[in-house]
């Protein structure tokens, strides 16, 4: 871990982040960039987290971080007030009162290469050269885009791949849900961090053996399975994006180091998955 430096400002850090994840790569509906913080204030410690929630801010304050970088936006929709009468307003007040900045890298980090899905692909065992599942049409080289397609080191049964994916991702109440023949051979796999059922058709068109993502809905998933598409693996939204945090932190330190600056980084240990428990039905109903 790098030795912290008091000479780095919030502007220096956000400039480095925007070199890695240019805001222009974000979707038109997205809200990325600096949410709170004085660009001229010094930054020594940066906490990376998936969600901008109170428990993450508590963690940042306890560690003495001056900046939190999250994947998910705090204020995705337009607001007319940040009064402390709402949860998001209270969080903004807490950040300002604690002297902690907040920066968001969302769909720009999804699209980047390497980005969110590259880290997810590595976590679930994909190796070699990765290609976008949904290429960014503005990229003439076709390297950027949403999702990734890659190969496992060796072909394996679907249930083996599910176990490999579960071992590579943080534990959640929902685990890894699977649709498909457990004995089906899986070699080429598509992944997409975050909600990915909008890319079901792209996964089918790519001819992959399996598609791993989050937040798959009942009807699209069941229709997909009925028409002979790839096997499906549904992981917790938080878990599928969590692997990017360490990668983003490492790359931030790399850019700053090239500029002769250092900050200390930490990946949040706070589990912010929305689902904390799961209960199984009676065997007579299964």
Automatic annotation (TrEMBL):
UniProt keyword Amino-acid biosynthesis present: no
Keyword Metal-binding (UniProt): yes
Pfam families in the cross-refs: DUF34_NIF3
Keywords tagged on the record: Metal-binding
Complexes and interactors: Homohexamer.
Family: Belongs to the GTP cyclohydrolase I type 2/NIF3 family.
Protein name stated in the entry: GTP cyclohydrolase 1 type 2 homolog
Taxonomic source organism: Nocardiopsis endophytica
């Amino acid at each position: 871990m790098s030795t912290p430096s008091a000479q780095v400002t919030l502007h220096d850090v956000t400039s480095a982040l925007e070199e890695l994840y240019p805001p222009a790569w974000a979707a038109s509906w997205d809200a990325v960039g600096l949410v709170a913080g004085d660009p001229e204030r010094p930054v020594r410690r940066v906490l990376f987290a998936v969600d901008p929630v109170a428990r993450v801010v508590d963690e940042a304050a306890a560690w003495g971080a001056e900046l939190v970088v999250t994947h998910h936006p705090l204020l995705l929709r337009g607001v007319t007030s940040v009064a402390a009468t709402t949860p998001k307003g209270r969080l903004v007040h807490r950040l300002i009162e604690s002297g902690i900045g907040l920066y968001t890298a969302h769909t720009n980090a999804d699209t980047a290469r390497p980005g969110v899905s590259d880290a997810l692909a590595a976590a679930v065992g994909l190796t070699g050269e990765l290609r976008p599942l949904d290429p960014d049409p503005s990229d003439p080289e076709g390297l950027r885009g949403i999702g990734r397609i890659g190969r496992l080191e060796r072909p394996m049964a679907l249930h083996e791949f599910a176990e490999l994916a579960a071992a590579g991702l943080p534990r959640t109440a929902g685990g890894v849900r699977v649709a498909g023949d457990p004995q089906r051979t899986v070699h080429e796999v598509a992944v997409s961090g975050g909600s990915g059922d909008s890319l079901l058709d792209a996964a089918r068109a790519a001819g992959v053996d399996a598609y791993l993502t989050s937040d798959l809905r009942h009807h699209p998933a069941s229709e997909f399975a009925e028409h002979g598409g790839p096997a499906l693996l549904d992981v917790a939204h938080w878990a599928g994006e969590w692997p990017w945090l360490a990668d983003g932190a490492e790359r931030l330190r790399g850019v700053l180091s090239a500029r002769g600056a250092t900050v200390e980084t930490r990946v949040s240990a706070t589990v912010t998955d929305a689902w904390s428990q799961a209960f199984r039905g009676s065997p007579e109903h299964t």
